Amino acid sequence: MQVVFVDDESRVLAGIERTLAMSDADWECRFFTSGQEALAALADCPADVVVSDMRMPFMDGAALLGKVREQWPGTLRIILSGYSDIECTLRMLDVAHQFVSKPCDNAVLLATLEGALSLRALFKDPSVLDVLGRVNRLPSAPRVFAELTRLLADPASDARQVSRLLGSDPALSARIMQLANSAYFTGGGCGTIKSVGDAINRLGIDQVRLLVLASQVFADAVEDPFVDQLQRSSLHASKLAAQIIDGRNAQAATAALLARIGLLVPDLRDDAWLEVKTGCDTPLHAAIGAYLLGLWGLPMDIVDAVARHTHPGRAAASGFGLAGAVHVAVALANGQTPDLGYLERTGMLEQWPHWQRL
Amino acid sequence: MTISPAPDALPADALPAAEYERKLHARDKTIEVLKKRIQQQADGGATSSFALLEQNLSLGKVIALKTEEVEHERQELEKALTDLRQAQSQLLQAQKMESIGQLAAGIAHEINTPTQYVADNIGFVDMASSSLMTLLDKTLKVVEAARAGQPSDGLVAEVDAAVKKTKLDYLRRQIPEALAQSKEGLEHVARIVSAMKEFSHPSNGGKELLDIREVINTTVTVARSEWKYVAELETRYADDLPQVSCLRDMIGQVILNLVVNAAHAVADTLQSGVREKGKIRIMVKRAGEQHIAISVADDGSGIPEAIRGRIFDPFFTTKPVGKGTGQGLAIAYSTVVDKHGGEIRCDSEVGRGTCFTIRLPLSADNGEVPCR
Questions:
Q1: N or C: which end of chain B has fewer CB within 10 A?
Q2: B95-99: long-range contacts (C-beta < 8 A, 24 or more apart)?
Q3: What is the ipTM of this complex?
């Protein structure tokens, strides 16, 4: 596994190098004090993970990771920064899969890297590479969703701009309205949502983001009954996940909505693929789904929860958390029983009867 | 080219203050005139008739009424003047707090960075020391066995294995380096914290004799994260600098405003592969017998001629919303000119850079005190 670290303060790099030297990690690590140097080295030999400081002279972390995203979209991108300026934070959210703030405990840094590299290992599994190689065209990032995310990240933007963006695609607006008025979002009983602006006011911006994501990801639902069914169960799971885990609503709802997105890849549109496993024993569709989300630049927590949603207990850091909530929600939405042994280990078993009634 | 601020470039608050004082003066004069007239009439009132008395009485009433009115107005104006003075000092304090707020994110970064590597290094030394201790224990066992006259190959083999595992050469090289870098990191943090304390501490309202180099060094340290990503900053101080009588925090604020402006001007001109860093130079030298000159020069974008006359105006700014309130240079002007009786001027050329020069009078009364 190849890891590249970039920080304009060479002493930070030396500290990280020493930490790694004393750990059991056997990654190939390279260290650079500027974005330009790192890019030149990456051109010779790409990396699985790039960890960059934010504030650096001339090319800052966001600029560097933006370039990495363009040229090596499969590389996982992490910002390690002690800078807390809000504008910068938003800029890095746009290009980084994860943000780790300095000072961080070296155990945290190691755990983050391990998580990233185990995802990369999953993506490099021969069966995943085989599917990726055979598929001519991977579903591209939902464009409007990406633009919406950028718009929401910009403190200068407002609700009118959001309405305008969503209104720019009539087919999309129609699907958003249709979904917004479905029982999943309104609970069925609070009158009709008539416009995108109305949806923003009534449902809140996080819900509208989910709507947009669902509308775009499951755009084929109209003509493909398989996708239609997938969309229905995904929306259901999304709602359940948000109820199961209160604190991180938006992330859990998004992760559960996207948990089975791998099944949307044209070659995999069949329930039979649910059973096919990779060499790492993860369902192939979950690995492909996670890979797609990584490419689209979704946060690493969500990518990780999707990758592990069928076997949440397998990761090193095994609390309940996001992956657990997504696991339970997806199982419930598809009429399956979650891994009760896992619920017991994480102390959540007593919640199970309550969740069954949701 | 050189420009001196036009008279209309006076800070806005100076105008209303002068206006109020003028009005007050005018009212006082009115009262004076009315009093004199009534006195004259009273003096010249030999032809005592009832009518005249009545006239005088009613005139007296009018005057009493007017006097009351005028007195009331006078009090109001005085209050307005006090409020205005207070507002002015609040504005100064507000701008200071604002710039500290802007600096805060950068200062946090300046502190978080060394904290990161110091923590990493301590973790490293911790682990290194525990594996060295294990090695030491094993070695001592060999020594013990040898002393007892029973050298054991098994124990020696254990030591060999531990040596291999411990990466001795690596530790020998890295431990001293890790400790040295950690020490530097802690010194860096201590330096920033003490500069912040120095910078934000208000002077007790009065002027004090200061080594201006210390004020500049403190300010440059506090603002480091504002310039270090875009420019090299150099300070050049003449050898024969006397101490200067000034308001420490306010002069620090002026230097900060100039350095931040310089950094912004330089940042606008950077271009990948062509020019990745600019230069900011702060120089202090004597200017004649009575003054010192502090200059802050950059090789940034320069100030277009069309706006040079307005740069000291309050609220004048070319920066985008949220990047500046347009108070920086206005406050520099009022601090240097009004509070210290000095001068500030700006030399600028578009595409070449800008140089602000401040002339501050030395202590007027106490004679000259050399810097230590």
A1: C
A2: B95/B253, B95/B325, B95/B327, B95/B328, B95/B331, B96/B200, B96/B249, B96/B253, B98/B325, B98/B327, B99/B253, B99/B256, B99/B257, B99/B260
A3: 0.72
